[in-house]
Inverse folding.
């Protein structure tokens, strides 16, 4: 077999038409907007870090530079971890997010595959209905959901959140995975069908391995949404020991009109770290998951 | 191995009648090629044999057993897809072993069968690679290897060569034919390329608009096309057609072509005096004639291919092609005279398109 030349190598480098753009032009059209974007995006993060490591005295002082810290301290973190129930909130958030994410993913995989590939009667309408369900805002849904949670006797337990989060996670993940499954050539499944695979084997051995980027991006999304969820957690939970981080920080670290800014920011910082770490690990999968396409 | 019988098969997609009563018999060990323009239903028919499409009416039998309601995996067939459909996340070895693993065959048997198929196709060095690391031709071969490994009753090919470049296509064509001669597995092969059909088939089935126009051995179709469509479809360059009229008089039966020129009617041709017909001549059955003989033509373009010379000319208002083994240097606009090999001309009824030769 004669090896076929790699056609991309014919053009040296991958500069493309970039030679047409001068350096000053690139500065104005590319780097400057990019810099502004990055600053706007990262400044809140910076402010959070600065505030969380300032002593209360320095925080409230009108002297000095508000954008810098002179005597950094970890007293807020110490207060947060040892004098509040923050570790418990964190643990609750982890449990609720992980369980809700995995159950939602499992349900979404089955739903998306069925809608996209089994082509049953009315599959299109079901797909649309699921999307419409996603459009109903949680700020309306929490009232009927609260009634259900209360009737089921789940009020003020982690189960209240674990069971209600999928109401918005499943529609979203299903929608995302439907798009991803659509990009997997159906000949692969037909081939597997002829090879003797059952529907279940096709799903497990062919479709899911190919949909890993899609699963990861759906998973990250679901995890982030449940990690940051506020309204349901605020409504369905009242005891401090079952609160999640977003609710716990707001309800327990603001006393009347006194804002414990240092502890608030430290809590927010610690709370945002797991999500940031997840994103950084899976960013490549995440991007390819959003753009779809299985390449043979 | 097994024979395949397709009896009065119909297929509806919603309100569209795609396959309209097709009968095909493929003998045990035969290589049958379904050929036709896109949208003629040939791929749909193949997919019905594979069990990937439901059969709306009629019967399909593999090895004497009607398989209408049999799921694909129980039909004992293997299919090679146009885009190869290799599992991208599996190595070549696992791609080939997949069906055997699903069938829970012992590891030693799987290895032996995969290795044997790999040897047949020269894939030995590629077993540990992923499909994305292979060239188009190699992928094609893996797809065939995957089919061979199963040792099925019937091979189904759905335009397997159309994603390859021209040179590779010719090479793979020969390879598939050799493979068939070696394995003698009943094969059904779908293509839109009539050259593939001519070169590979034991039996060609020409389809159009969901019906079979003609089926038979390749040269049978070439020499005796049943109608205008088959005549125009089989053969490259395509057959020339001229509108004509049959004249049966005292000086024998003749065909009057545009411009009043007449040529002798082939002996076995039917048709009555004055009947409007289409006169067909294959480009390779045209020869140059001396002044006053044959049909007057005006050269439009000359294309020397090296092996032969293709001359595009106009007879009356109709463009015709002639292929000469010898080299000729005509200028555009030059007047030449062409004479067909009378006994190898074709005659079709102008209305029905049916052949008037028997």
């Amino acid at each position: 077999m004669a090896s076929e030349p790699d056609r991309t190598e014919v053009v040296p480098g991958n500069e493309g038409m970039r030679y047409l753009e001068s350096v000053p032009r690139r500065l104005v059209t590319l780097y400057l907007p990019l810099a502004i974007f990055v600053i706007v995006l990262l400044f809140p993060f910076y402010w959070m870090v600065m505030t969380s490591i300032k002593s209360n005295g320095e925080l409230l002082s009108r002297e000095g530079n508000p954008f810098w810290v002179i005597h950094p301290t970890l007293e807020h973190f110490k207060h947060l971890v040892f004098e509040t129930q923050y570790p418990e909130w964190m643990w609750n958030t982890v449990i609720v997010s992980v369980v809700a994410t995995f159950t939602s993913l499992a349900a979404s995989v089955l739903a998306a595959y069925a809608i996209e590939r089994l082509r049953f009667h009315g599959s299109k309408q079901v797909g649309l209905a699921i999307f419409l369900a996603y459009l109903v805002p949680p700020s309306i849904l929490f009232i009927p959901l609260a009634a259900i949670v209360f009737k089921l006797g789940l009020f003020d337990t982690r189960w209240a959140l674990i069971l209600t989060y999928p109401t918005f996670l499943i529609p979203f993940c299903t929608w995302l995975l439907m798009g991803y499954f659509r990009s997997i050539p159906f000949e692969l499944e037909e081939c597997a069908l002829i090879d003797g695979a059952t529907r279940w084997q096709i799903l497990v051995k062919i479709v899911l391995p190919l949909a890993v980027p899609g699963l990861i991006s759906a998973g990250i999304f679901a995890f982030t949404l449940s990690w940051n969820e506020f309204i349901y957690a605020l409504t369905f939970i009242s005891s401090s020991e079952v609160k999640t981080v977003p609710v716990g920080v707001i309800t327990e670290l603001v006393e009347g009109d006194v804002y414990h800014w240092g502890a608030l920011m430290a809590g927010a910082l610690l709370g945002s770290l797991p999500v940031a770490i997840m994103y950084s690990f899976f960013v490549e999968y995440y991007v390819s998951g959003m753009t779809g396409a299985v390449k043979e | 191995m097994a024979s395949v019988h397709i009896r009065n098969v119909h297929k509806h997609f919603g309100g569209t009648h795609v396959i309209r009563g097709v009968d095909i018999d493929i003998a045990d060990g035969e290589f049958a090629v379904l050929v036709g323009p896109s949208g003629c239903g040939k791929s749909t028919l193949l997919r019905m044999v594979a069990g990937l499409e439901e059969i709306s009416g009629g019967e399909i039998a593999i090895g004497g057993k009607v398989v209408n309601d049999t799921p694909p995996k129980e039909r004992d067939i293997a299919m090679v897809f146009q885009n190869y459909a290799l599992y991208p996340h599996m190595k070549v070895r696992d791609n080939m072993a997949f069906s055997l693993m699903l069938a829970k065959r012992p590891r030693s048997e799987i290895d032996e069968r995969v290795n044997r198929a790999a040897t047949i196709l020269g894939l030995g060095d590629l077993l540990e690679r992923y499909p994305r690391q292979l060239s188009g031709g190699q992928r094609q071969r893996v797809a065939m290897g995957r089919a061979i490994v199963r040792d099925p009753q019937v091979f189904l090919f759905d335009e397997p060569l159309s994603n390859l470049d021209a040179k590779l296509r010719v090479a793979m064509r020969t390879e598939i034919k050799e493979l068939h001669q070696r394995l003698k597995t009943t094969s059904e092969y779908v293509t839109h390329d009539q050259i593939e059909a001519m070169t590979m088939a034991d039996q060609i089935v020409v389809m159009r608009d969901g019906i079979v126009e003609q089926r038979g051995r390749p040269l049978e179709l070439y020499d005796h096309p049943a109608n205008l469509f088959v005549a125009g479809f089989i053969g490259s360059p395509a057959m020339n057609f001229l509108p004509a009229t049959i004249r049966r008089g005292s000086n024998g039966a003749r065909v009057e072509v545009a411009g009043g020129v007449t040529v002798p009617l082939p002996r076995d041709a039917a048709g009555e005096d004055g009947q409007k017909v289409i006169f067909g001549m294959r480009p390779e059955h045209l020869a140059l004639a001396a002044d006053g003989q044959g049909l007057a033509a005006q050269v439009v373009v000359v294309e020397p291919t090296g092996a032969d010379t293709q001359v595009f000319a106009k007879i009356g208002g109709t463009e015709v092609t002639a292929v000469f083994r010898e080299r000729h240097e005509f200028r555009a606009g030059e007047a030449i005279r062409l004479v067909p090999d009378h006994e190898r001309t074709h005659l079709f009824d102008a209305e029905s398109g049916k052949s008037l030769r028997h």
About this structure: The longest helix of chain A spans residues 86-118. The CA atoms of residues 102 and 219 of chain A lie 8 Å apart.
